[in-house]
Amino acid sequence: MLEQKILRVNLSEKSIKEEHVPTEITEKYIGGKGLGAYYLYKELKPKIDPLSPENKLLFFIGPLIGLPGYSRHVVLSKSPLTNTFSDSYAGGWFGAELAKAGYSGIIIEGKADGLVYLRIEDGDSSIEDAENLKGKTTYDTVAFFKGYHVATIGPAGERLVRFACIINDSTKPGRSGVAGRGGLGAVMGSKNLKAIVIKGRRDPIEFVPEVLRDKVRELRREFTEYLKKEVAPGIGLGGNLPVMKMSAEARVLPVKNFREGFIEGYEAVGEDAFREIRIRNTSCYLCPLACGVYTKVKTGPFVGLELDRIEYESVALNGPNCGQLDKGTIAKVCLLCNEYGMDTMSVGNITSFVMECSEKGLIDYKLDYGDTEGQIKFVEMIGKREGIGDLFAEGAKIAAEKLGLVRYAVNIKGLEIPAYDVRGPVGMALAYATADRGGDHLRAWTISAELKELFTIKGKAKLTKDLQDRNGALWCLIGCDNIPGNTTGDPMKFVDYSINALNTIGWKEKFGWEMDREKFLEIGERIYNLSRLFNSREGFARRDDQLPERLKEPREDTGWKIDEVDFEKMLDEYYSLRGWDEGGKPVSKTLERLQIEV
Amino acid sequence: MVKVRVYGNIRESLSGNSPILIDIGQRRIRLKELIGKLPGGEEHIKKKIAFILVNGRNCIFADGMDTEIGADDVVDVLSVVAGG
User: Fold this and answer.
1) What is the pLDDT, as a whole number, of residue A156?
2) Is the pLDDT of residue B84 over 80?
3) At CB < 8 Å, which residues of chain A contact B?
4) What are the structural domains of chain A?
5) Contact between B80 and A554 using a beta-carbon 8 Å cutoff
6) pLDDT in the model for residue A426
7) Phi-psi region of A14 (alpha: psi -120 to 50; beta: other; left: phi over 0)
8) Residues contacting residue A490 through CB under 8 Å, at least 6 positions apart
9) The pTM is what?
10) Over pLDDT 90: what percentage of chain A?
11) DSSP-assigned letter for residue A554
12) B2-79: CATH homologous superfamily?
């Protein structure tokens, strides 16, 4: 789908317009993250309040939608949690439905007077009253719109919890999706937009020129075989749950607010433990992998509880990192997060922060590690913004600054970090610190690729850069992260498949040149520089590309540490390779090379 | 004695022992030489792939496998975690 049509919805003016993405913009940024980065940089005024009507909320899909492995969508905005550029990806069926309705993206502007939802049905769209949905959970909202695919916020988004998320397809038989990170659900809430509901009737293959359709059908078959043979064996139970055992045994599993890296009995919340309560696996549109893990708790205080998806990060951060080893409790916490519409990763990280402060008597609130009742109550207080929950609904960074407890809040640029302690595998530390949306592991998962040159710092900065560029390019197509992340073969094979697919759907016919690896990765680099430029314009610089205090301290169990001199060495090399100045800003020569117009 | 702590699946391939104490006397030896003294040593580590820390600091920031080790040092050998 290289002809890209988007919907521009202004909630203040109650207007909906269709517009086409200019051909030269598709050629430079392809789709997905690329288009999102382009529109955000071009259209947002610097230094706006992310929760003001001036901010915009963007939804995009990629041009390969209709092929297995590319059905995800991205939500982008200026984040209220980090004040940075923010992109968050979700699986499920919502993105495909947007394509079926004829659109590649939606740009939401302004703010509605009261709570509304956006209805999109093929060529017919409208803004509708949603007062009856006020306070409804994400599950209730999705269930309310029968026959539609729905992306919605929950009560946390309405209450502007800064790590509120946007959830789609959560009561459908297929895999649900969560645009979890960065608080984009709060941006949606700030616009009084409860949900986007879509019903489309076209097959995405209709967007490919008729003469190319047989080739695309062949590509679908080829992709399906590739996923079954080379990726499915690496998926395990799904939800990245096999990582629990590896993290624990390698002693990089966060325990008690990243103070330690191992906990006895971790198996109680490992892959096998969740396999015991798995009901079924679910899949995204057209995908044969079925990595969604649907569970039903069999024992304990939450017996009978059903949860439509569970992931390693959610388990690790709300489990061992909170001293919690009851899988039923973790499932309950995740269910609450889903109902309220909150990022499970931020919630787990913030809960462990409060537990440590409570243990040390630094706050006037009692919450012990492993306290099931207290943990659940705390999550509900955040979702409702009640009592101390109101402060922590602002995110770890803001709460810690207000309390004078920055040392205990494990975040980078305000984004609570994922569930890997990087004081051992330090290549990841650079990846966390230079991620464009704050502390994040998905921009560059360096660890596997470090294998070739494990015992030297040489090449680690380049590795981080290359992976960020590769993923930047793949996110233009919104290829699933599970594919390069879990393949049993070479991750670059997915890149080559993607490039071949772009050519098959008519890239050369449209732009007069054939996509190849070099050009594809250059587009990724262009996008990474554009998101960096966005952040530089917001005032972010080298001083912000830093690790949290906790990761600079020796670990309590092993003494592992990253000292600042070591880290700065990697950062220097990284900036140099990127063509950024010492402060971390892209220099004009770099922007010229990448044809980025400021 | 140098204390070598081994984690994850690498430990399984090294007879399940950890920590392992290696007597190097008063000498200072290179990290690769020390690893070579482990049962199965270097070959196991290459196969299983590891991060190696010396006194809690990743050896990549020192001299890699040429980092000098003394009797009082603690060496940690971690297996690689892949996921996301």
Assistant:
1) 98
2) no
3) 240, 242-243, 246-247, 249-252, 312, 420, 423-426, 441-442, 445, 447-448, 450-451, 454-457, 460, 481, 485-486, 554-555, 558-563, 566, 569
4) 5-207 (3.60.9.10), 238-409 (1.10.569.10), 427-593 (1.10.599.10)
5) no
6) 85
7) left
8) none
9) 0.96
10) 87
11) P
12) Beta-grasp domain (3.10.20.30)
